[in-house]
Amino acid sequence: MKRIAIIGSTGSIGTQTLDVIREHRDQFTVELLACGRNISLLKEQIAEFQPNIVLIERKEDLSRLEGHLGQAKAYAGEEAMLETLMSPSIDFVMNAMVGARGLKPTMSAIKAGKTIGIANKETLVTAGHIVTDACKKYGAELIAVDSEHSAILQSLRGNKMSEVERIIVTASGGSFRDWSYDELKNATLQDALKHPNWSMGQKVTIDSATMMNKGLEVIEARWLFDIDYDHIDVLIHRESIIHSLVEYKDKSVMAQLGSPDMKVAIQYAMTYPNRLELHGTERLNLLEVGKLHFEPTDKDRHRCLDLAIEAGRKGGSMPTVMNAANEIAVEKFLKEELSFLEIAETVEKALATHTQISHPSIEEVLKVDEETRQRVAAQ
Ligand SMILES: NC(=O)C1=CN([C@@H]2O[C@H](COP(=O)(O)OP(=O)(O)OC[C@H]3O[C@@H](n4cnc5c(N)ncnc54)[C@H](OP(=O)(O)O)[C@@H]3O)[C@@H](O)[C@H]2O)C=CC1
Ligand SMILES: CC(=O)[C@@H](O)[C@H](O)COP(=O)(O)O
Ligand SMILES: [Mn+2]
């Protein structure tokens, strides 16, 4: 029986992780559930999965859990999360939080030598060098959950990284893939939130619309698979059926295909290197799909993709600035305080005005992250 901790249990990845557990009660138990502010959904999750530990963001919400905890102990705040994630009663941590606030809990789980399903890509973007070094030091393992990285992991099975020529990360193109640049000037929040293929949390849906998501995913791939940027390409594939590809030196290309459903990647991370049945997922019917389409990316339209890769290549504190500026810009866009095209402008400006630290420590990463957030919020 694998004992699972889910941080971000009330979100899109968190609830789908619970869907997988519901289907395999003989394989998994829930040890810990952590969320932010959605206490009503958390109460339902506690009743159904009976965890031993429950974590929430704010102390003032603890009283709302009274009478709903069963056997669980409840705590609030980040310190409690960092401590409880190290518990020996946890075998696997699903990091389904959104944003760089997932970094500290990831580090805690790493220090306890845990296996971590890392949906929270921003952690690898903001501090990839620190996270991967710490995994080596503490014998922890990060397993890809992001659909593209799960596809890459699956396409690498049985082969050596030294045999890989390049990784090809596929992109749907997001909500605005068929809009002209001029039309983007008037893009609304409601338009941006309509992802063509996936139903996801708001932040990643906006990142997908700006193609920042693909930039974050290139950096995520660089760290998860220890491959340099010259060997990672991005290809627009509007159907989201091929979830990514690996080209080998002998020109063989391995890919993972499937209907767009995150439960497949979530379950694979939880059962890796094995597989289990998954009933609640649509079987891929290529006759129905008919055709698969591929297009190149476009430097002018996909400004965020370029900014992210440029920051990744420069390294040091640049990805931290890029990520923090993007998080705040997306928050502002979600409050309709910023236009769609201003997201890229905000990130570009934050990067241009930052003095790079070449090899930041975790304290420096956290400081740069906070300073950038304040700088961008004040604009
Ligand atoms: N959704 C998807 O299909 C995919 C997502 N990803 C990545 O996975 C990550 C999660 O995305 P997604 O599930 O869409 O995001 P959501 O916004 O749907 O969920 C975020 C979760 O984080 C929780 N949270 C917020 N603050 C805290 C806190 N202080 N302590 C604990 N939990 C907190 C939220 O809780 P609450 O709601 O209770 O406030 C919620 O459960 C992101 O990095 C995203 O890029 C990657 C691939 C696909
Ligand atoms: C499901 C998933 O992994 C998302 O990160 C997805 O990649 C978003 O789609 P696009 O960024 O390709 O539009
Ligand atoms: Mn993805």
Compact summary:
With about 375 residues, the chain is α/β, with parallel strands linked by helices.
Question: Would you mind describing this structure in some detail?
Answer:
With 379 residues, the chain is of the alpha/beta class. The chain has helices at residues 12-23, 39-49, 78-84, 103-111, 121-138, 147-156, 181-184, 189-192, 202-210, 212-224, 262-271, 286-289, 303-314, 318-334, 340-352, 362-378; strands at 2-7, 28-34, 53-56, 73-76, 92-95, 115-118, 141-144, 164-171, 232-236, 242-248, 253-257. The strands form two sheets. The chain has a seven-stranded parallel beta sheet with strand order 4-3-2-1-5-6-7, sandwiched between helices. It has a four-stranded mixed beta sheet with strand order 9-8-10-11, covered by helices on one side. The radius of gyration is 20 Å and the shape is globular. Bound molecules: NADPH dihydro-nicotinamide-adenine-dinucleotide phosphate, 1-deoxy-D-xylulose-5-phosphate (DXP) and manganese (II) ion. Residues 146-148, 217 line the site of manganese (II) ion. Its cofactor is Mg(2+); Mn(2+). Residues 142-225 form the 1-deoxy-D-xylulose 5-phosphate reductoisomerase C-terminal domain. Mn(2+) binds at residues 146, 148, 217. Belongs to the DXR family.
